[in-house]
């Protein structure tokens, strides 16, 4: 069984913000498969389905970004999912807008959702899909930037990359993560 987690903040206020790109990827994957989210377990919206013969759990923690690890741990404990079978999708200021990068492990890089995940599951060794949102160009505070929406110009790079991220998730249901990394990290 594999768990694919999109990080974000709950509520309409945060919908389509840069910080919620993980939710957007999960929403797009669910829409493509015509799946509906359920609520009530793991402090998350979740989908438990089969894709390409693999049992998967899609998860959108509703704990707010800084406590995302709590929801991930609850789901992983319930289904006995090992860290190497978890993929966390999140925004990354250090990548250009729309660039995706897959990694098998690493630090939190200042991202509080990843910090929470590492703290809760007790390891840095889980899969990640970093989704570039770039850095603010003006003297805009980082918090305001990540909680802002993509411009129309940025969306030209973001929308195809959301599709590419969905494809990476789908491919991971059939291929080892290292092969998926080699295919999508070009």
From TrEMBL:
- Residues that bind tRNA: 14, 64, 66, 112
Q: What UniProt keywords apply to this chain's record, in alphabetical order?
A: Cytoplasm, Hydrolase, RNA-binding, tRNA-binding
Q: What is its EC number?
A: 3.1.1.29
CDD domains to which the protein is assigned, alphabetical: PTH (cd00462)
Domain of life, per lineage: Bacteria
Q: What class of enzyme is it?
A: hydrolase
> Which reactions fall under this protein's catalytic activity?
an N-acyl-L-alpha-aminoacyl-tRNA + H2O = an N-acyl-L-amino acid + a tRNA + H(+)
UniProt-annotated catalytic positions? 19 (proton acceptor)
- Stored SUPFAM superfamilies: Peptidyl-tRNA hydrolase-like
Task: Pinpoint the site Stabilizes the basic form of H active site to accept a proton.
Answer: 91
According to the UniProt entry, its GO molecular function terms are: peptidyl-tRNA hydrolase activity; tRNA binding
Family matches, as Pfam families: Pept_tRNA_hydro
The protein's matches in InterPro entries, at most eight in alphabetical order, are given as: Pept_tRNA_hydro, Pept_tRNA_hydro_CS, Pept_tRNA_hydro_sf
Give the GO cellular component terms, alphabetically.
cytoplasm
The entry describes its oligomerization and partners as: Monomer.
Q: Per its database record, what is this protein's job?
A: Hydrolyzes ribosome-free peptidyl-tRNAs (with 1 or more amino acids incorporated), which drop off the ribosome during protein synthesis, or as a result of ribosome stalling.
Question: What family classification does the UniProt entry report for this protein?
Answer: Belongs to the PTH family.
Q: Which NCBIfam families match?
A: pth (TIGR00447)
- The name of this protein is Peptidyl-tRNA hydrolase
Gene encoding it?
pth
């Amino acid at each position: 069984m594999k768990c694919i987690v999109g990080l974000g903040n709950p509520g309409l206020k945060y919908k389509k913000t840069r910080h919620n790109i993980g939710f957007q990827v999960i929403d797009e994957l669910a829409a493509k498969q015509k799946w509906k989210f359920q609520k009530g377990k793991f402090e998350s919206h979740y989908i438990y389905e089969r894709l390409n013969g693999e049992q998967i759990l899609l998860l959108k923690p509703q704990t707010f970004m800084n406590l995302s690890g709590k929801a991930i741990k609850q789901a992983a404990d319930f289904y006995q999912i090992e860290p190497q079978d978890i993929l966390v999708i999140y925004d990354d200021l250090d990548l250009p807008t729309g660039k995706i990068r897959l990694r098998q492990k690493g630090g939190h890089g200042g991202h509080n959702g990843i910090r929470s995940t590492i703290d809760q599951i007790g390891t840095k060794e889980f899969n990640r899909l970093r989704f570039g949102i770039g850095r603010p160009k003006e003297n805009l505070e980082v918090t305001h930037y990540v909680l802002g929406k993509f411009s129309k110009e940025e969306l030209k790079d973001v929308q195809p990359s959301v599709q590419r991220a969905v494809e990476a998730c789908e491919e991971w249901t059939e291929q080892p993560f290292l092969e998926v990394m080699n295919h999508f990290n070009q």
